[in-house]
Design a protein that fits this description.
424 residues; alpha+beta; Peptide Methionine Sulfoxide Reductase, Chain A; Glutaredoxin; Metal Binding Protein, Guanine Nucleotide Exchange Factor, Chain A; 3 domains; 6-stranded mixed beta sheet; 6-stranded antiparallel beta sheet; 11 helices
Amino acid sequence: MYLLGYVLLSLCITAYTNSGHAAPSSEKKRATEHIEKIVLGSGCFWGAEKRYQQIDGVINAVSGYADGQGVSPTYRAITKRSNKHNPNNHAEVVEVTYNSNRVSAKTLLMHFFEHHDPTQLNRQGNDIGTQYRSIILTTTEQQLKTAEELKTQFQPLLTQQGFGEIATIIKPLDTFYKAESYHQDYLAKNPNGYCPDLRTGVTFTQAKTVADKTDNTLLFQGKHIVVIESQGYCPYCEKFKKDVLNDYQGSIPVTTRLASQLDGLTISTPTWATPTILFIEDGKEVFGRQGYLNPEEFYLMLGQFKLGKSEAFNVAFDEGTDGRFCKEYEIFKNTPDGVFIDKLSGAPLFDTRHRFNSGTGWLSFTRALPDSVIEKADNRYGMRRTEIRSKSSGIHLGHVFDDGPNGQRRFCINATVLEFRPRT
């Protein structure tokens, strides 16, 4: 009997294991390590994935699809025109894996509600369709309860600020499908773009942020560049600062704002993307651009803004040439001690100590300041010349020749693209 019982017990254990019930050990391991998952959809998953990855306690954030029926869980399928208004379409979602000892589901869900517009039905910003619906898919009873409670708490705060009813769907997760590999860490792989910032500005701690009370008085006086940034981390904002703003020294001031800090200004460009660069004069937008701008794009727009349709713009961007003895030449040929700077970037280019009178009618220097210009071959018009461009902005400055005084070079420079700064 003892042997028979032992055999039967062994068979039962083997049958239990082979039937796929090995999960309890992995479940116990996850519980011991306090690892939980929740699936959240708040529009395009690229930016959301990146934001969740920045939260301390989040182990991983994976873009994917969920909550669909009869539609293949692939990007090609869910973006078909026939599925744009299909209520059974999959939603773009992010599976967030987190350590609940370090970050709670409540914290993640508060982040979810605050970082998009949960009152929009089947859209976020310019993204329209059922795939962009606001949705919370839970994996535990406590997550479900917390989500419902936070939805109830957030609604009156939204109502106070003029928003409608929360449209967020809250339900248990059925199946999560991981998105294609090129969607994973998309913002890191594609550095030239923008981060959608579609939040309402309403938070759980305050119905209206202090930031909304920003004083914009100075922006109503003259020309300004306004860069709309994200409240959270935006890689495109950081890249724009690194590539452009950190080296900008121009005369038109740069001001950073959140989309909620534009009170009183007349803006026509949508402000839901970060960065958004606005060129403003006397409080009114002249033109703007959503998304990352590289230095060449930024300085072209700045040139249009600052120079307009002028000889200076023609010289800077169409490689034109000042007229001999032009007005700016007459002003700059005898300035006090100082430096000549790029009219757009403000970067120092030439020093009066290297200036000389060549008699040509154009400003002439024996050298440029170190690391300030770029030399390029220019074989246009049947001539072989060396063109000089500003290293900071890329604008055309003039040419360099080998006929300077005492065997030195002669930098023949257009005065219209320069500004003068006295030496202090």
